[in-house]
Please model this.
Amino acid sequence: MAPLSTAWAIFQGLLLEALPFLLLGVAISALARWLLPQTGWIRLLPRQPLLAPVVGALMGFALPACECGNVPIARRLIASGAPLGTGFGFLFAAPVLNPIVIASTWAAFPDQPWLLIARPCGAFLIALALTFVLRPVPEHALLTDALLEERRLSQPLAQVGLLERRSGLLGASAIEAPLPAPAPARLAPADLLAHSSREFLDLLSLLVVGCAIAASVQTFLPRSWLLAVGEAPTLSILALMLMAVVISVCSSVDAFLALGFAAQVTPGALLAFLLLGPVVDLKLAGLFTVVLKPRAIAITAVAAAMVVLLMGQWVNGLLL
Amino acid sequence: MGQWAAAVRVLAAMLPSLLLALWGWLLLWSGWSGRLSLLLREAFHPLVSLAGALLLLLAVLWWLPLGRRRPPALRLRASGAVPWHWVLSAGAAAAVLAFPPAPSFSDLAATRPTALPDGPVLIFHLPPEQRSLTEWVRLLRSQPDPALHDGAPVRISGFVLERSGQPPQLARLLVRCCLADATPAGLDVAWPGGVAPAVNQWLEIDGTMTVKSVAGRQRPVVVPERITPIPRPERPLEP
Model:
């Protein structure tokens, strides 16, 4: 019973700690939706393959949220018709490229300035790499059906036909009720509240599942197994990557957690832990399902892991 | 049947508001009941309470006419279909309310690394008898020569931690965020008669810091003069 009680307590700790950040993310998403009508600034975002993810990544400085909170914001961006590159750049880089996370990394590692540069730069490069990996995949294979429909309603008819929008007589589904007409430039407060509440409750359910998985794995798979893999450069990177996936701590506080074992692992492994967790972890696996289809999530996870492994190896080669 | 269907439709229309209220109450109650002290670092407690208050406010707003529109609760397309994942989250909230956390600190610590995050430097200037267990551990790690503290008075509290292959220690858990990143800080104790109290038992120890040779190495060991069982403190986790 003791391990079960411990897993239950870890589940509650993870959930109660992450929930305010999720609410913050949904609030920022709602605020952005209300203050910035979709016909305005979204259309100004660059669609150039390199510039789009760069702008998306840098938007983390304006919309600071950890990985729990930035999923609803990224989803709102994509649903509003933003270039996919921008949405993905934000989704993958913003959990690290924001002032809160950079400040917490500095607070945890004031004596390791290289980390303060390597972490944001690494997150930026990972976001670029993932965006380029996902770029050849068509939207309908990447995005969830619900998000795709929302996105098509926001795109001009020059890009998306009535059939694809499924909003006109031609494209209307025979089974589901007709979708509402495209949203007005600015939502009424009541509509905004209803939509944001549903979005919060949807994401909350996924967060509950993710926290349950993370707590179970963390309790029943001893962390010492991960750390006992050895101090070998490559193995330590892989061990810390696995740990980042398993423990699923928010990017706003994961630097403090890394501090706990920084002395025992190689610098490359430390960086790998700080880079992979905000992009791939068990808690996020549930949250990502509101944006990406399972195959796209799998591609993202594998590509992110490979890039992080390479970066870790490179850092170990430089510093060891 | 018609009445039941109507009742289900009304419930479905009210569900988002009820769920927001449930989660809001859960967060607020977790703060009031002191449960957070067992789960999160203290710095996060106000954030959780604030989130709870905001969720309750949102639940109330569902029933108010916002602007010139009808309130969201009355404009829901009440088809009677309740999303299953909302029911799951309601079940989780109810379970969290019903079953408080009761972690085994010893189990939790057994699988954790022992490297400690840095603490405030000022603690090293405290008189020995005013240092907490965590402050002692940090001090001994920063000044590895245990002979420097030989004979110093000690007054510490913690739980009994037993890890495989190691003698039982008196320990505290340190958290940077929540229980998920808890790290143990433990001190060796020369238990009277060589037998430690039950694992997870909270104790207060008055004694002396001494140096003993363990496996050929000089190690700091607390020699107790008085051991008092105590209840688990209200704030068992330390930053």
Summary: Chain A has a mean pLDDT of 80. The radius of gyration of chain A is 20 Å.
